Amino acid sequence: MFNTARWRLTVVFTGVVVVLLLVAGIAIYFTTSSLIYRRVDAELADKAQTELFLTDPGDHGGHGPDDHGAPPTGQFDQGGYFYAVSDTSGNVSSMSYDADDNSLVSANTLAAAVKNGSAVQQTTSANGEDQRVYALLVDHPGQSAQVLQIGRSIDSEQGALSELRTILLVTIIGSIIPALTGGYLLSGRALRPIRTSVDAQRAFVADASHELRTPVAVVKTNAELLVKHLQSGKLGQSPNDALAIEDILGETDRMAKLVSQMLTLAQVDAGQQTIAPSPMSLGELADEVGRSMRALADAKQLTLDVRADPAVWVEGQRDRLREVLVTLVDNAIKYTDAGGRVVLAVERRHRKAVVTVSDTGAGIPSDSLKHIFERFYRVDKARTRDEGGTGLGLAIARHMVAAHGGDIRIDSDVGKGTRITIELRLLAHEVTTDEPLSQSSAAN
């Protein structure tokens, strides 16, 4: 799909470049052609005015030569110029030796010269040579009006324009390969973020489907068992029925949690996850989380210490930050064996509110640390599934911390434990409290 889209973008880009070059080439060509022919016309007009100035209008019936083909002033004997003199109806009275009837202007151009005083036309001589002819009305008092036609070959100008056409054509054709190459590279770079996003969405859907498959299968199997017992009239008589109901409820809770977390991440991706911050004591929130998680620590025979300064205030949304702390403490408890210790601490450090959750668990291998905040990533997939984890908690925690303008990082040593640190902007707030720092621990 992306290769097809990439080539389509490449072709479109190349087409746009070629069209732009073609338009620019046409504009350059016609502008240059107009300038060249305008210069030729000005040159012919100047020659015509010079001939009028040098020729005595009383001689030889106006502007005619002494002999047919010999101009009275000799102005056209050099430089390839030719001339002809005619009345306003086009009857030629004289012309230079290198002129012919094909070289002279048409009746329409002659009429335009009579009407406007002058006119220009491009003609072709009898031998096929392209020429530019300037027709000038000569109307002296007391004499019949005449038209003086002066022209010359424009082969040199047409040769220059031909070379210009060749250069422009070669430039346009030569630009196709660079345009294709550039378009291919640019389209690849433009599609890279889209491809990454689509790949991430595909992976997300695949992982979500995989995560939902197991609980759905468990619910279906146990439900079918209960239906069989119901149809046989033995529902409730087997101890397996109670276990089946327990499994259904447990897997239902797991699916509900997974769906809720997926919805949160979907809202984050869509930019719909908004934060409504308000001043709050981060230390008091940590105490609250510690009290709620203490039973879980006791069940695993762990020590849970909460060391929270109630005077540490931040601007945040309480339920979102509580979700983050619960996720981090829950993970620490899950991956710490009996007899270990989990510490939740809140303190101020360098004008920042710092939260740390540390444990004495097995730690995380260095090659897994860079993936730890990825969606559905698990260091120990089998153990996490047994513990009821979804692999989304840390991904959500990272987004929530970022939404609060904070930073989260993780450090771990295999066999020694893991430490997750969150830094938030410290809120300058006067707090009066007589409560000491909470330093409570659960029994081992």
Query: What are the segments in which pLDDT stays under 50 over at least 5 consecutive residues?
Result: 56-78, 430-444
Major β-sheet profile: 5 strands, antiparallel
Helix/strand structural class: alpha+beta
Order of helical and strand elements? HEEHEEEHHHEHEEHEEHHHEE
State the shape.
elongated
Distance between termini?
58 Å
Arrangement of strands in the largest sheet? 2-1-5-4-3
Specify Rg, calculated over alpha carbons. 47 Å
If you average the pLDDT, what whole number results? Answer: 82
Instruction: Let me know the number of strands.
Output: 12
Portion of residues in helices? 40-55%
Alpha plus pi helix count: 10
- Proportion of beta-strand residues: 15-25%
Q: What does this entry look like structurally?
A:
This protein has 444 residues and is of the alpha+beta class. The protein has ten helices and twelve strands. Strand 3 and strand 4 form a beta hairpin. Helix 1 packs antiparallel against helix 4 and helix 7 packs antiparallel against helix 10. The protein is elongated. The C terminus is likely disordered.
